[in-house]
Amino acid sequence: MLSLTVLLAACGEETASPIDEVTTVSIDGAWFVTAYQVGDEAKSPGIDTSAVLDLNIATVALEGAAGCGTFYGSFTFGTEADPTFAGFTIPGRSESQCADETRAEQDLIIAALEGTTAFTVEGQSLMLTGPNTSATLTPAS
To answer: Closest by alpha carbon to 137, among 55, 48, 21, 22?
Structure first.
């Protein structure tokens, strides 16, 4: 199982250990999209949206559902050049009958994920950010 480990270094003069805290979050598994923003539109998914994202480390694949069918793609967390990099590519989705508002909300969630360029860890949550987008993921279990 792959985990993201974030080391928080102490600022200041000489210290015995530069690491104050280590936070580890396993990204493998199911996540709720609890908040997202695209441009000026910030939202929390509605009750009938049930925005869930399943990340599979072994295949670097993602599957999701946001109330109007499913979507799928791939993801990247961290690179050698930039350990805070995060990226999502969501080329496919299945469509189902749903209200226009629900479809629009799913489209915004996908846009928020695809606009991601970096991540931070806050507690057990992943905070995804991009130039004009953001999303907060919390563990589903």
So the answer is: 55
